[in-house]
Amino acid sequence: MASAKPIGLRIRMYQVGFGDCFLLSFEYGQALDDGRKERHVLIDFGSTSMGGRLSSLNQIAKLIRDHAQGKIDVIVVTHRHRDHLSAFGDKQIAKLLVDPGYPKLVIRSWTEDPDLDRGARGPAAAGTGIAPSATRGNARDTEVAIGPKSRRFMRTLGSAETFTTGLFEKIRKSPPNSLAAEASGLAEDQLKNEDAVNQLKAWGDAGKPAYLHYGMRSGIESVVPGIRTRVLGPPTVDQHEAVKSQRESDPDEFWMIYNQLLGNLTRTDLIGPAHGKRGLPASTESAAHAGAHDDVSGVAPDPAETDAPDSAGAFGPVGPVRWLTDRMGRQQLNSLYRIVRILDGVLNNTSVILLFDVDASGKRIRLLFGGDAQIENWEYALKRTRNRALLREVDVYKVGHHGSRNATPRTLFNLWKPRSKSDPRWALLSTKPGVHGKSPATAVPRETLVAALDTSMTLRSTNLLADRVPYVELHADLRAGKAFQEVSVPPIPTRARKRSSEP
Predict the structure, then answer these.
(1) CA 316 → CA 73, 313, 323, distances in Å?
(2) Whole-model pTM above 0.70?
(3) How many other C-beta atoms are found inside a 10 Å radius of the C-beta of residue 396?
(4) Cβ(353)–Cβ(369) under 8 Å?
(5) Which secondary structure element, helix H or strand E, spans residue 198, and what is its range?
(6) Do residues 82 and 193 touch, judged by C-beta distance below 8 A?
(7) What is the CATH number of domain 6-138+192-232+351-487?
(8) pLDDT in tens, 75-107
(9) Cβ neighbours for 412, distance < 8 A, ≥ 6 positions apart
(10) How far is CA 490 from the centre of its chain?
(11) What residues does each domain of the chain span?
């Protein structure tokens, strides 16, 4: 029933700690072609650290099952970081989430298309899973979207994955709160997540896969009638070379060199002797690592600058020589940690950015979901006047990258003027402090961003939910053209302990 329009819209943001999981439920006044009156779109489902007192993603999966009755029509995975797709790799969760025959559509970034050969050294036809472009009057974007530069980037990603896998294997289970532990966590988040990827591919093969880049049709309208979606990112490297976030003159050689370096290092070289002590902080983070307007005086040291394993034995008396040898000793891991950070930014910039447009009794409701997209991804869409005009009217913003400072560009944020209390703009932030970033300038969520969002919007964050409250829910009555209202959500009851039969 292509002419049907939704009469209600529910948005649920689930408590998954440091991760993302959102369910959009579109409600219809009459049964659609399959006899149902709802359509459900699940955007990401993963975590690297659970939040509140919820102990597992299985609890969340059961809630999603109840809310969608096992009939999730569309699954969107914005990018392949573990905190956005790990749940799909659990066979029990995957079976619980969807009934046979669902999902109808699986959306992922163009970089995940299995038909794009990562070993290719020149242009070739686009993979069969890619949907046709919807960009009008801009045919050139379509023609060159996946050309030589993009294919070389795919090959470079393959080399980068090899490096990350090797580093993770050498530093996994590092001492807690050490630089090695943080590097290990970042590296693990960037692994291929093969179980999840295989499940997504299986669902896509059974339904329909779409691997999206800027300007393409998402295909969601064919499954969820009465709405419109725009794909605002990611651009391919041929569309926007800056999206690589990595500007070495020869990226293939860059990763090859670091793979060779890693191959010559032992675990002891990277995290120190089994009974060694951690190095002590030696400096504070410089303003170069902070935002342009942040006060960094007295902030905690950046572990990439100060923290590393001590050498097996002290070299020389305390003084300049000892300081110099200690700095040289931490350089190996320090350098590799920075390389992991580079790849982290690269993968974030492959995030799919979707703008949903829904009619609400003559007014438009717009929802913006951008995964972990960073400035290099956003700037391609933001430089177009038409896109900026659409983004000015966003009603619900899924806060990028769990509240990091570079995932909500000022160009985007400055589009959003204050609104009346009767028609607020909502910001939904799925996050958990203390997981990513060890100083105020690198921490996620970023306090200055959170304060700005809380001042100009109605902010809801999972880390502020009461214990055992499993999700945030917003509802809009589209027939009346009313703004979103927050729905009260009860906590998950605590299981009663069994009483012992002994006296």
Answers:
(1) 66, 10, 10
(2) yes
(3) 25
(4) yes
(5) helix 194-206
(6) yes
(7) 3.60.15.10
(8) 999 998 889 999 999 999 999 999 999 999 999
(9) 378, 382, 391
(10) 27
(11) 6-138+192-232+351-487
